[in-house]
Structures are given as structure tokens and as C-alpha cells.
Design brief:
The complex is a heterodimer. By secondary structure, chain A is mostly beta strands. Chain A is built from no helices and eleven strands. In chain A, strand 9 and strand 10 form a beta hairpin. Chain B is mainly β. The chains are: A mainly beta, B mainly beta.
């Protein structure tokens, strides 16, 4: 079945450093969504990418969808302590979204 | 807008009992609701997809007779864990999609329910 993997599993960065998480699907996706889950909280929608090669920005966050629509990345520039949490991608195959394994980000002040 | 509530937030029950978890969309009509299970520090595992007025679609490996899902209205879905056992202890979280004013078909998540079976 469809699998969605994310790397790295964990990332500790110093505040101000950049951070990137990569999402890879075993199958071609119709679209991909990104969510953020704070410790003890629930996932919150960040963005959706649909087109091959699409790049979207939200302030310090840059999201990219691969040309083959099988991978995606989230890049955070100059991390802040408020960026702490787990970032999940969710890839849509035929009729459902499969969540990636997640990347847990810790930001050291 | 786009608020999803879950009740209860925590429940502790004895082995063999049944537990019902409610998921409500408070300010929009949820055409589809999803039920997930999340183990500590792990990803969300989709259990089933529920459309209002129809039978839920269960993922492979999820026992439909053990995890009963009812989506009777556009704002309410329930998950009943029947004859719960300690291995059912987990964090159960629902999400909803529908006409919520968003630009995308994003899922709005409830706060989750922590189930502990003794």
C-alpha cells in the first residue's frame, strides 16, 4: 500500500538556524498537505500543494512539491522557539490522505 | 471558524467495557470525518473514513465490529470502542472536512481523546 516517509525523524536546531524536512511517497500523489502538531496538541493545517514543481511561501516557511509529485519539502528559515513541534506531510493518493511519519523539531534558545 | 470538538478528552475504563467518543464540527457541516489513532511520538494512523448517512470505510487491519463508527448527522460522528482491552489504549483523534470557508480540502482536527484501558 501507499507509504509516506519523512526524514529526519528528529531535528534539534539552535534558534536562528534553518530547518528542512523531506517527505517521500511510494506512489504518485494528487496533492500533498502539511500539518503542524505542537506538543500535546492536535495537527493544524499549514498548506496544500497541488501542481508539479509548485513552491509556496508562508513568511519563513517554504513548501515545495516535487516534479514527479512523489516528494515534498518544508523549509523553515531562521527558526524560532515557536516553531517547536512535529511537522507532518499528508499525501493524497486515490481517495484518502496518508500521513507521513513526521519530523519532530526542537529549537534551542 | 472551523472548530472540531471531541468528547471526552480523557477516559479510563476497565477491560471489557465499551467507550464512546464523540466528534463534533461546531461551526460547519462536515461531509466527511476521519478517525485516527496516534501512539506516543508517532504518526497518525487512519482507522476509518466516515461520510454522513453512509457506512464508514475502514482501513485494512481495523476491525469494524470492534471500532463502531456512526456519522448520523453533518455535525456529529461517534467512535465506539467495544469490549476494550489494554492494547486499545491510545490517543484517538478525529478530523472533519466540509464547507468550512477554507480554500482547500483541509482537515480540521479535534483535540483528541486519550483512552486508557486498565
Amino acid at each position: 500500500g501507499q507509504q509516506v516517509m519523512q526524514i529526519p525523524q528528529y531535528q534539534h536546531v539552535q534558534e536562528g538556524e534553518d530547518f528542512t524536512t523531506y517527505c517521500n511517497s511510494s506512489t504518485t500523489l494528487s496533492n500533498i498537505q502539511w500539518y503542524k502538531q505542537r506538543p500535546g496538541g492536535h495537527p493544524v493545517f499549514l498548506i496544500q500543494l497541488v501542481k508539479s514543481g509548485e513552491v509556496k511561501k508562508q513568511k519563513r516557511l517554504t513548501f515545495q512539491f516535487g516534479e514527479a509529485k512523489k516528494n515534498s519539502s518544508l523549509h523553515i528559515t531562521a527558526t524560532q522557539t515557536t516553531d517547536v513541534g512535529t511537522y507532518f506531510c499528508a499525501g493524497r493518493g486515490t481517495y484518502k490522505y496518508i500521513f507521513g511519519t513526521g519530523t519532530r523539531l526542537k529549537v534551542l534558545a | 471558524g472551523a472548530v472540531v470538538s471531541q468528547h471526552p478528552s480523557r477516559v479510563i475504563c476497565k477491560s471489557g467495557t465499551s467507550v464512546k467518543i464523540e466528534c463534533r464540527s461546531l461551526d460547519f457541516q462536515a461531509t466527511t470525518m476521519f478517525w485516527y489513532r496516534q501512539f506516543p511520538k508517532q504518526s497518525l494512523m487512519l482507522m476509518a473514513t466516515s461520510n454522513e448517512g453512509s457506512k464508514a470505510t475502514y482501513e485494512q487491519g481495523v476491525e469494524k465490529d470492534k471500532f463502531l463508527i456512526n456519522h448520523a448527522s453533518l455535525t456529529l460522528s461517534t467512535l465506539t470502542v467495544t469490549s476494550a482491552h489494554p492494547e486499545d489504549s491510545s490517543f484517538y483523534i478525529c478530523s472533519a472536512t466540509g464547507v468550512a470557508g477554507g480554500s482547500y480540502n483541509e482537515q480540521f482536527f479535534g483535540p483528541g481523546t486519550r483512552l486508557t484501558v486498565l
